[in-house]
Each structure stands twice: as structure tokens, then as C-alpha cells.
Write a structure and sequence with these properties.
- The chain is α/β, with parallel strands linked by helices and about 350 residues long.
- The protein folds into 3 domains: about 80 residues, no CATH class; about 45 residues; about 150 residues, Ribonuclease H-like superfamily/Ribonuclease H (Nucleotidyltransferase, domain 5, 2-Layer Sandwich).
- It starts with 6 loop residues before the first helix and ends with a strand.
- It is built from 12 helices and 7 strands.
- The radius of gyration is 48 Å and the shape is rod-shaped.
- A 5-stranded mixed beta sheet has the order 3-2-1-4-5, with helices on both faces. The protein has a two-stranded antiparallel ribbon with strand order 6-7.
Amino acid sequence: MVTFVTAPFVFVRALLKDPKELAVENLALRHQLAVFKHTTKRPKLRKTDRIFWVWLSGLWADWRSVLIIVQPATVVKWHRLGFRLYWTWKSRPRKPGRPQIDPEIRRTIRRMCRDNPLWGVPRILSELEFLGFDVSEGTVSKYMLRTGKPSSPGWHSFLTNHAAEIVAVDFFTVPTATFRVLFCFFVISHDRRKILHVNVTDHPTAEWTARQITETFPWDTAPRFLLRDRDRIYGDEFRQRVKNMGIKEIRTSPRSPWQNPYAERVIGSIRRECLDHVIVFGEQHVRRIMASYVEYYNSSRLHLSLDRDAPVPRKPGARTRGKIIAIPRVGGLHHRYERCA
């Protein structure tokens, strides 16, 4: 029996022999194999033997004439089995299923769903393509949040959208060195907490208060809503003036200062950060103090509710250039820090 390892050497030796000698040798081998076939049980072939005959059948067209130990159909069967095993191995799945979606894409889709409850698949897909993500509508639909869509945006979005149309007004008292009591009136906007107007008087009336509203909002700059308490100082003349300007009044409930939070908060800030540290001598004096504080409050004072920015946004300075200097504000009670050019 010729094995796969010795077959090449037998083939090379046969090429070097004389043809007559080779024919006699083949005749002797055939006779021995015929005797072996009649007197011995069927021999067991190894895998290398099968591979050799499959290789030889593709190399030599007359291979059937010398085959004795097995039938030609067996070799053909081996060849077909090898062909089937080869293509089974070649077409094996590399990784089961589709390729995974980038986790960043999944997080971005869900974030867009939370931030924009009214957006659908096409809108989110458009935003993703603008950000450079190449995904399909099916992918977006698969990873969208399945919470029920509200009929309108949340209260936070609703109030934020209307904050620019809301202002609040209020009075607070200022004691003087001569034990007089002055009344300070102010107007503050809800969108950036900016103090729009401040004035002082020792005898507030509805006519005087109405005039302050006119000075604060000339021409067509009036807001849509005005939030105030139920003080009697807002008399008929004030209400008529506000109505003529196209402003709708919103009155808080009795004894409910928490319903006008921005106005109450700014009064506390004015007292803690300014008036509690000075002695007011008169009406002109408190006007100068309030003008200085309002300028500091609007342009320099940082607010947590405004993402640590001022009502009038400040431009961040470069971190690596210039010396840091302190600029006094409100007579030195507060400072603003800038970098020198």
C-alpha cells in the first residue's frame, strides 16, 4: 500500500527507470496486489491515502486503470465529500447576526428623544446625518424611546418659551439716616433676571407707578404679561395704563409672595449685598446706590440659574494671557475680575 508521504518519491523514481523495466515491475506489483486482494480482508485506508488518490485523480486521466485496492466510484465519492467539506468551511459564518451599532449612536438617538418629544424618525435621522452618522430609518426606529408622546412640550419648555414675555414689579422700603422711609420700585424680566428699571420716591401713587411702566417700555417694547401683588398702590390709573399698553396683569394670591419669586429674590439680594452695608442719607443718595448696584447686578454678578453667567452675558477671557485685575463695583463692596490686555 502506497502512502501519501512516499508517493512522490515512487513517482520520481519511476520517471528515471527504463520503460521496459518499469512495465515488468508494474506487472509484478499488480499480480501481488491481485493475490493480496483474494487472500486478505479489505484493507483500511488512512486519510492521507484518500487525499493522495483524490489528488492523483485530478492529475492523471488514466488513474482508474491502476486502481486495485478500491473502486473508482469510491475515489469519486471521496472527492465530492472533500468538495462539500471545503465549501462548508469557506461559507462558515464569521460572526452571527448583523454588526453592532455604535453605542454613541444609540445614546444620541435616546438623548434626542428625551430632549425633543415631538420629533419623529425622519427628524432624528436628519440630525444624525448632519452630525456625520450613517444609519438607516430602521435603526433610528429601533433605538427610539417608546414613551408616549405628550400633546405638548413639558412645563419647563413652556415656561422658558414664555419667560421673555413676562416681567415682574414690586416695591421695597429703604430707611434713611433721618428715619424717613423711601419706597424703591423696580421692574425685572423673567428670561435673564435683568433689572430693567429702578426708581425711588417718598410718596408712591398709582399715577407715579404708571409713569414708571411707561418709562420702562417706550413705544412697542411692552411685554405681554406683568406679574404683581395685590398692593393698593396699583390703583385704577396704573391698571388702565397697563391695559392701554397691551399688557395683561397677573396678580398673585393674597399673602403669597412666593408666587412672585424673581422679584422677592432680587429684593433679598439688594438688601444682603448692598443696602445692609450702607447708611442712606436721602432720595438722591439711594438713587446713586441703586444705579451702581443695578449696573453690577446686570453686567457682572454671576447667577447659578443662568449657567453661572450674568443677565447681560459676559465673554469668557483667555486663561493664559494677561494679568488678572480686580475692578471695584458698588463702591468696593463687590469686584469684577478681568485680564489685562
